[in-house]
Amino acid sequence: MPFACIFVPDFSVEALLRAEPELRSQAVAVLEGKAPLQKVFAGNEKARRAGVEVGMTKLQIEACTDFVLRARSPLQEAAAHAALLDCAQSFSPRIEDAGDDAILLDLAGLEPLFGPQPKIARDLARRASERRRGFQSRYGHTGGPRLFWHNRDSFGKRS
């Protein structure tokens, strides 16, 4: 059975960047917890390259000046997840909510409407990255959900 998936790495960061797209070019770390015990919950790729690691304390990361710190926002994450679901449902009514950061779509019978499976996967990622959704995501098509879960971190191409 053919499937497509959309996967949003660093989902907590991406949820915040939807509201503040001007930060997309910067190293961004998301903090969780109450002061003074806040710790890094997630960071984008630029932050990781600069040495930010999940679990670092706010005090450790504040020593560096080239980072943007934001508090984790469950409200923005919920809105981002709803936008991701909306995107998936615009292609197929048969979807599987695979967590906040991933949606699987059953592609059976969709080729006459949307074209070949690789095109559907690319169009899905393009729609996810459109301005109103604003995700940088990975996409791909696979023979089934298990293949996605085994290859999740290296799955597909970035949109």
**Terminal residue distance:** 24 Å
Structural class: alpha+beta
Give the CATH level 1 class of the largest domain. Answer: Alpha Beta
The largest sheet is:
5 strands, antiparallel
Rg on CA atoms, Å: 17 Å
| CATH architectural grouping of the largest domain | 2-Layer Sandwich
- β content, as a range? 15-25%
Major beta sheet, strand line-up: 5-6-1-7-8
What percent of residues adopt helix (DSSP H or I)? 25-40%
Tell me the CATH topology of the largest domain: Alpha-Beta Plaits
Whole-number average pLDDT?
Answer: 83
Domain unit count: 2
Q: What spatial form do the alpha-carbon principal axes imply? A: elongated
Q: Give the helix tally.
A: 7
* Uncertain residue ranges: none
How many β-strands, per DSSP? Answer: 8
Give me the strand/helix succession: EHEEHHEHEEHHEHE
CATH superfamily of the largest domain: Reverse transcriptase/Diguanylate cyclase domain
Task: Record keyword descriptors for this entry.
elongated; Alpha-Beta Plaits; alpha+beta; 159 residues; 37% helix
Topology:
Layout: E1 3-7, H1 11-19, E2 27-32, E3 39-43, H2 45-49, H3 58-62, E4 67-71, H4 74-89, E5 95-97, E6 102-106, H5 111-114, H6 117-129, E7 138-142, H7 145-151, E8 157-158
Parallel strand pairs: 2-4
Antiparallel strand pairs: 1-6, 1-7, 2-3, 5-6, 7-8
Helix pairs in contact: 1-4
